[in-house]
Design goal:
alpha+beta; Immunoglobulin-like; 4-stranded antiparallel sheet; 3-stranded mixed sheet; 7 strands; about 15% strand
Length: about 240
């Protein structure tokens, strides 16, 4: 049986929009995972395993895992399934006589009467008494207002992970933590589960204090990583 490692990456739409709640299934082990709000996922797999990515409204994609997928992100793009438009059957066939044909199209009978009555009601001006707020009723202040929207983060976890790999000396991971090269990225992702990084992701900046915080967290978590996530790593101690 081949050794399992972690595969991590991101799922987006064909327009590069992050997709959350995408189901990720290892077809061999039946282990499941799902993408977070940024479209990121992490799941155990071995070389040769098939990962299947599914989400309602999108085409299903399968990916056979290669050894290279353990050392760099696996990016998947799902395509939306085109919506089918219901066919409308036109029973009346035009004769070419405009005066006659127009009678068979548009709103007729009770539907037309109802629409005419609603249009007439909407066009009337309401009296001042009707528009006045009731006693104790909240009145929305009149002003220019403001817009509220989601501020797009400059980074995601993969960007932060890449920064750490490039800026933290390899000896910290391989000598002090006793990790192999393929284990470094999954271990960093493991540390992220309990590591506060909101501002780092939001602004895309990392200071010396942030790096020191990560290294302290890594030293605390290495034991749990060996015992709970990757028990085979204990043999290399």
């Amino acid at each position: 049986m081949s050794a399992q490692n972690y595969v991590f990456g991101k799922v987006t739409t064909e327009d590069d929009v992050e997709l959350s709640l995408v189901n990720v299934l290892n077809m061999k082990t039946e282990e499941r995972a799902s993408t977070n709000s940024d479209g990121q996922f992490m799941i155990r797999a071995s070389a040769g395993d098939e990962l299947r990515f599914t989400k309602p409204g999108y085409d299903r994609i399968s990916k056979i895992i290669q050894s290279e997928n353990f050392t760099k992100p696996l990016n998947i793009a799902l395509q939306r399934i085109p919506a089918e438009i219901e066919t409308v059957e036109i029973k009346y066939r035009p004769t070419g006589n405009l005066r006659e044909d127009v009678k068979h199209f548009g709103d007729r009978g009770k539907v037309k009467v109802l629409k005419d009555e609603v249009a007439d009601y909407v066009s009337r001006k309401s009296s001042a008494e009707v528009l006045m707020p009731r006693s104790g009723e909240f009145v929305q202040p009149v002003g220019p207002g403001f817009s509220v929207g989601k501020v797009k983060d400059r980074w995601d976890d993969i960007d932060f992970m890449q920064f750490l790999i490039e800026n933290v000396d390899d000896s910290f991971f391989t000598e002090e933590l006793k990790l192999t090269k393929p284990e470094i990225q999954p271990f960093i992702y493991y540390v992220f589960t309990n590591f506060e990084r909101t501002n780092i992701i939001k602004y895309g900046t990392v200071g010396p204090a942030d790096v020191a915080r990560f290294m302290d967290a890594a030293l605390r978590e290495i034991g749990n990583y060996r015992n709970n996530v990757h028990p085979t790593a204990r043999k290399r101690r």
